[in-house]
Amino acid sequence: MLVPGLADKRLVFVTGKGGVGKSTVALALGIAAARRGLRTIVAELSGQARAAETFGVAPAAGQEVPLDGSGLYATSVEMEHALEEYLHERAGRVGDLLTASRAFHAFASATPGMRELMMVGKAWELAQDPRRISGMAPYDLVVVDAPATGHALGALRTPATFADIARVGPIAHQGRAIDVSLRDPAQTAVLAVALPEEMPVTETLALRRRLRETLGLELAGAVVNACLPERIGPRQARTVEDALPSAGGKRVASAALRTALSEHARASEQREQVARLTKGLATPPLELPYLFVETLDPAALDVLADRLEELL
Amino acid sequence: MSVAELLADTQVCVVGGSGGVGKTTTSAAIAAGMAARGLRVAVVTIDPAQRLATALGLDELGNEPHRIEPQRFAEHGLRLAGELWAMTLDPKRTFDELIETLAPDEATREQILANRVYRELSDAIAGSQEFTAVAKLHELAQAGDWDLLVLDTPPSRNALDFLDAPDRLRAFFDGRALQTLLRGGGAGLRLIGRGTGLVLGLLKRVTGAELLSDLSDFFRLLGGLIGGFRERAEQVEALLRAPGTTFLLVTSPEREPIDEAIFFQRRLSAARMRLGGAIVNRVHADELGEDDGALADLPALLEREAGLSPPLAARVAAAFADEHALARRDAANVVHLTERLGAGVPLLRVPLLDGDVHDVEGLVRLQAQLFGSIQHR
Fold it and tell me: Is residue A268 part of a domain?
């Protein structure tokens, strides 16, 4: 398998189709990185604070909160907060004056792409050493819990788009600096998360293509989440099938046989999708096991983090 | 309860839910099922799986519905007594079309479509993708060519994005502060009111003159569409509130999408929109109920009754125990959903099918689950 060496990057964007478990993978990757001794922050761009909630830590908008004592932090990036911070840092008093103006807020929130620009800009800022925001400690690794594929690609392109439209001035300058970092494989990695199903696999392959087109960046790696165990092979499946009639009278026994066959059928179909992804990427993705648990608590995340260490 | 009953008096069915719960395939299966019951149905899909799109012949270009050959379904045992039409929404193109329809004159239209901010960033206008979906729905409803329209809603992390879209977009066009900032007529930067001159001056120092000029052109040009846009947003909302419009919520039995669905219902009822029912996809069948004791004896039972070898019996038993735990989890989540939605909201459970639904055969199977069997709560 291709080892993306994520521990050596500064910024890792975790994206994928809706519902594949991006937040879970981002958080588990953060846990794995922190175990390595990296000062790590998981930055959520969705307006949620799932990392903090999972660890039972009170989230605070725009704040960087420690999740445990291990050097793992989380933050929920908010557009307004990021914008105020940016203006204050770039333009000092002028920035503060703008921030205080209602007209300006209306302007900023109506400007298409401004939200994406600020969110990506904030994630980038977290990865700067020294930090652009004075008094803040730098992180070794920023794991970005990014939006779904299409939106994530759009967001990653925004700094360049703004730089192109603005041509000169602070936004152009800043946009270009961010864009350079995003396109630099030594600093930035994009990690795709998929499920072993038709659509997420297709979307992962499309992401890889579009990432090349829009940023000239190679997909650093792919994670296939929630892979069912292959408990029985094809021959055993036939044995189980043959046993069905004899167990017909026993409700529980026949239910167990049918369930095992159903799981086998789904697992086999998943193998086909993983094979399709492997072929498309020309390298096997990292597979995460399906966790038969009720909720993904820190203990369950540890299991995933064990596997994700391979990507570091 | 079958989907046919839920949609008995419905002309427009909006299928909502969070990402990854099977909204698109459910929408397509609902449309196929209603077409099989004699209706002329059009389904607007957002992002179908490639194989499904190919199977339905949706690969062709065009931002209008086209008729799906009945043969494609007949081959898999579903006779479409009515007609099934389908399209995949192209949000950017729909937004362009909306601008073209609403622009007061040719010159404004050309200027908007040529504006750099519009060209590069219009897909980032908050709520635009969601709004284009309902705008398309409205357009098709106006055309009146179909007995039933089924709308799949755009994928988003948050199902509420869809409901918020008209408001967000209206706020975008309507923004009072923004209007103040840009009031005065004339072109570009000269349209500065006295009080806002300071703000614009400061802004220019941050954005640079060119970006500010492009942006203010952009806002000024779109400002010309406010009247038309407001009217369209009102029509769209009226359509969503119409007695013939039914929302169906799709969810998987996991906690997060279920919580989202509960949230969505609250918002729907606050917006006076009608929730026809909820569909829970991929529910693990509970074969044991609370009779967990049977699990302990299962390996021995499988050896004895089914003649499995001890290692195979152990594996089959382990699979069953794991799946049973999921079935219990699903059942608890569905109970939670039922309690929260209240007795008045019918609930349909679709069992986990072996394998993805990504072709016509799969749609027919899903259709049978949604329409065929009467399921009691």
Answer: no
Peptide linkage before A130 cis (omega within 30 of 0):
yes
pLDDT band for position A135 (50/70/90)? confident
Q: Is B172 on the interface with A (CB under 8 A)?
A: yes
If residue B275 lies in a helix (H) or strand (E), which one and from where to where?
A: strand B275-283
Contacts of B321 (CB under 8 A, 6+ apart): B295, B298
Nearest to B298 among A158, A246, A256 (CB): A256
Report CA dihedral (B103, B108, B113, B117) to the nearest 10 degrees.
-110
Kindly report the CATH number assigned to the domain that includes residue A106. 3.40.50.300
A257 belongs to a structural domain:
no
Considering only CB atoms, B120 lies closest to which of A47, A165, A262, namely A165
Rounded to whole angstroms, what are the CA distances from B84 to B67, B69, B73, B81, B243?
6, 8, 10, 9, 23
- Please say whether the structural domain B3-287+328-372 has been given the CATH code 3.40.50.2020: no
Nearest neighbour of B208 by CB, restricted to A20, A169, A265: A169
The label of the residue with tokens 């009822």 reads: B269
d(CA A139, CA A39): 5
The ipTM (two decimal places) reads 0.88
Question: Under 8 Å CB-to-CB from A161, ≥6 apart: which residues?
Answer: A113, A175, B120, B121
When scoring B59, B183, B226, B322 by the number of chain A Cβ atoms within 10 A, the one with the most, hence best to mutate, is B322
Rounded to whole angstroms, the Cα distance separating A28 from A68 reads: 13
Q: Does the pLDDT of residue B31 top 50, yes or no? A: yes
**Does the pTM of the predicted model rise above 0.95?**
no
Is A293 a domain residue? yes
Cβ neighbours for B310, distance < 8 A, ≥ 6 positions apart: B299, B303
Amino acid identity, residue A284? P
Residues near B108 by Cβ (< 8 Å), separated by ≥ 6? B221, B224, B225
Segments forming the whole domain that contains residue A182? 7-230+283-311
Report pLDDT for B95. 87
Domain assignment present for residue A266? The answer is no
Determine whether the interchain pair B315/A112 forms a contact, defined as Cβ–Cβ distance below 8 Å.
Answer: no
- Domain spans in chain B, listed from the N-terminal domain onward: 3-287+328-372
Domain count, chain A: 1
Residue numbers of B between 53 and 112 with CB closer than 8 Å to A? none
Chain A residues whose CB is inside 8 A of the B203 CB are 98, 104, 107
